[in-house]
Design goal:
Elements lengths: L2 E9 L2 H9 L1 H4 L1 H4 L11 E5 L10 E8 L2 E13 L3 E11 L5 E11 L3 E11 L4 H10 L11
Antiparallel strand pairs: 1-7, 2-3, 3-4, 4-5, 5-6, 6-7
Length: 150
Protein backbone atom coordinates (compact mmCIF):
# COMPACT_ATOMS: atom_id res chain seq x y z
CA UNK A 1 0.00 0.00 0.00
CA UNK A 2 1.27 3.51 -0.73
CA UNK A 3 2.02 5.62 2.35
CA UNK A 4 1.64 9.36 2.78
CA UNK A 5 3.02 10.83 5.98
CA UNK A 6 3.45 14.36 7.30
CA UNK A 7 5.03 15.58 10.53
CA UNK A 8 4.98 18.94 12.23
CA UNK A 9 6.40 20.42 15.42
CA UNK A 10 3.66 21.86 17.62
CA UNK A 11 3.92 24.00 20.74
CA UNK A 12 2.52 22.07 23.68
CA UNK A 13 2.93 18.75 25.43
CA UNK A 14 2.37 15.57 23.41
CA UNK A 15 -0.56 14.51 25.62
CA UNK A 16 -2.45 17.73 24.84
CA UNK A 17 -1.65 17.53 21.11
CA UNK A 18 -2.79 13.91 21.05
CA UNK A 19 -6.01 14.73 22.93
CA UNK A 20 -6.91 17.22 20.20
CA UNK A 21 -6.32 14.85 17.26
CA UNK A 22 -7.82 11.91 19.17
CA UNK A 23 -11.19 13.70 18.92
CA UNK A 24 -12.32 12.55 15.47
CA UNK A 25 -14.46 15.67 15.09
CA UNK A 26 -11.29 17.78 15.13
CA UNK A 27 -9.29 15.53 12.84
CA UNK A 28 -12.12 15.09 10.32
CA UNK A 29 -13.18 18.75 10.33
CA UNK A 30 -11.98 19.19 6.72
CA UNK A 31 -14.54 16.59 5.62
CA UNK A 32 -17.46 17.74 7.75
CA UNK A 33 -17.43 21.50 7.11
CA UNK A 34 -18.94 22.80 3.89
CA UNK A 35 -16.59 24.63 1.57
CA UNK A 36 -13.35 22.81 2.35
CA UNK A 37 -10.96 22.50 -0.59
CA UNK A 38 -10.25 18.75 -0.14
CA UNK A 39 -14.00 18.10 -0.29
CA UNK A 40 -14.50 20.35 -3.33
CA UNK A 41 -17.09 22.45 -1.51
CA UNK A 42 -19.07 19.45 -0.24
CA UNK A 43 -19.23 17.97 3.24
CA UNK A 44 -19.79 14.59 4.81
CA UNK A 45 -21.89 13.78 7.86
CA UNK A 46 -19.78 12.27 10.65
CA UNK A 47 -21.47 9.85 13.04
CA UNK A 48 -19.72 8.35 16.06
CA UNK A 49 -21.32 4.90 16.02
CA UNK A 50 -20.01 3.43 19.27
CA UNK A 51 -20.82 4.68 22.78
CA UNK A 52 -17.13 5.47 23.37
CA UNK A 53 -15.72 7.95 20.85
CA UNK A 54 -12.13 6.77 21.25
CA UNK A 55 -10.04 3.72 22.12
CA UNK A 56 -9.80 0.34 20.38
CA UNK A 57 -13.13 -0.51 18.78
CA UNK A 58 -14.41 3.07 18.49
CA UNK A 59 -16.22 3.27 15.16
CA UNK A 60 -17.08 6.24 12.95
CA UNK A 61 -19.27 6.53 9.86
CA UNK A 62 -19.12 9.19 7.15
CA UNK A 63 -21.84 9.73 4.56
CA UNK A 64 -22.80 12.35 2.03
CA UNK A 65 -22.10 13.49 -1.52
CA UNK A 66 -19.01 14.93 -3.16
CA UNK A 67 -19.47 16.39 -6.63
CA UNK A 68 -22.83 14.57 -6.76
CA UNK A 69 -21.29 11.16 -6.01
CA UNK A 70 -22.46 9.24 -2.93
CA UNK A 71 -19.78 8.54 -0.32
CA UNK A 72 -20.38 6.16 2.59
CA UNK A 73 -17.73 4.49 4.70
CA UNK A 74 -16.98 3.40 8.24
CA UNK A 75 -13.73 3.23 10.19
CA UNK A 76 -12.77 1.52 13.41
CA UNK A 77 -9.87 2.12 15.79
CA UNK A 78 -7.45 -0.83 15.75
CA UNK A 79 -4.56 0.45 17.91
CA UNK A 80 -4.66 2.90 20.77
CA UNK A 81 -1.97 4.07 23.17
CA UNK A 82 -3.53 6.83 25.31
CA UNK A 83 -1.81 10.17 25.00
CA UNK A 84 0.47 8.96 22.19
CA UNK A 85 -0.83 6.89 19.25
CA UNK A 86 -4.02 5.93 17.44
CA UNK A 87 -4.58 3.88 14.28
CA UNK A 88 -7.86 3.20 12.51
CA UNK A 89 -8.95 1.65 9.24
CA UNK A 90 -11.90 1.45 6.90
CA UNK A 91 -14.19 -1.53 7.51
CA UNK A 92 -16.92 -3.29 5.58
CA UNK A 93 -17.47 -2.23 1.99
CA UNK A 94 -16.54 1.44 1.82
CA UNK A 95 -18.17 3.51 -0.92
CA UNK A 96 -15.22 5.69 -1.88
CA UNK A 97 -13.80 6.81 -5.21
CA UNK A 98 -10.26 8.22 -4.92
CA UNK A 99 -9.18 5.31 -2.68
CA UNK A 100 -10.63 1.87 -2.07
CA UNK A 101 -9.68 1.59 1.60
CA UNK A 102 -7.15 2.99 4.03
CA UNK A 103 -5.50 2.86 7.42
CA UNK A 104 -4.66 6.11 9.19
CA UNK A 105 -2.36 6.75 12.12
CA UNK A 106 -1.56 9.68 14.41
CA UNK A 107 1.49 9.74 16.65
CA UNK A 108 2.34 12.49 19.16
CA UNK A 109 5.92 12.45 20.46
CA UNK A 110 7.36 14.72 23.15
CA UNK A 111 10.16 17.04 22.04
CA UNK A 112 12.41 19.47 23.92
CA UNK A 113 11.15 22.87 25.12
CA UNK A 114 7.53 21.75 25.71
CA UNK A 115 6.93 21.02 22.02
CA UNK A 116 5.66 17.89 20.29
CA UNK A 117 6.18 16.15 16.99
CA UNK A 118 2.84 15.16 15.47
CA UNK A 119 2.89 12.66 12.61
CA UNK A 120 -0.22 11.83 10.62
CA UNK A 121 -0.02 9.07 8.02
CA UNK A 122 -2.28 7.17 5.70
CA UNK A 123 -1.71 3.82 4.00
CA UNK A 124 -4.20 3.37 1.19
CA UNK A 125 -5.25 1.06 -1.62
CA UNK A 126 -6.18 2.63 -4.94
CA UNK A 127 -9.51 1.65 -6.51
CA UNK A 128 -9.76 -1.25 -8.96
CA UNK A 129 -11.63 0.83 -11.55
CA UNK A 130 -9.13 2.06 -14.16
CA UNK A 131 -10.64 5.56 -14.20
CA UNK A 132 -10.71 6.05 -10.41
CA UNK A 133 -7.31 4.36 -10.03
CA UNK A 134 -5.80 6.89 -12.46
CA UNK A 135 -7.50 9.83 -10.72
CA UNK A 136 -6.46 8.55 -7.27
CA UNK A 137 -2.92 7.95 -8.50
CA UNK A 138 -2.67 11.55 -9.73
CA UNK A 139 -4.14 13.10 -6.59
CA UNK A 140 -2.38 10.90 -4.04
CA UNK A 141 1.21 10.82 -5.19
CA UNK A 142 3.47 9.46 -2.45
CA UNK A 143 6.83 11.12 -2.21
CA UNK A 144 10.08 9.31 -2.91
CA UNK A 145 10.26 6.25 -0.69
CA UNK A 146 6.58 6.65 0.15
CA UNK A 147 7.14 9.00 3.08
CA UNK A 148 7.20 12.75 3.20
CA UNK A 149 8.14 14.71 6.26
CA UNK A 150 7.32 18.38 6.68
Amino acid sequence: MPLLSRSATIDGPAERVFAYVDDIRNLARHMSERGSMPMMGSKLHLEIVTPEPTGVGATYRYSGRVMGLAIDFSETVTRYIPGREKAWQTIGHPRLFIIESCEMRVLAEPMPNATSKLTISIDYILPRSVLWRAIGGCLLRPTQGGVSTA
